[in-house]
Amino acid sequence: MPILTANNITKMYKKKWIIKDINIQILSGKIIGLLGPNGAGKTTIFYTIAGITKCNSGCILIDQQNITNLPLYYRAKLGIGYLPQESSIFQQMSVFNNLMSILEIQKKLNKKQRYERVIQLMDQFKITYLHNHLGYSLSGGERRKVEIARAIAANPKFILLDEPFSGIDPISITEIKGIIEKLRQSGLGIFITDHNVRETLNVCEYAYIVNKGTIIATGTPLEILKNKIVQQTYLGNNFYL
Question: Structural domain boundaries of the chain?
Answer without folding.
Answer: 3-89+155-235
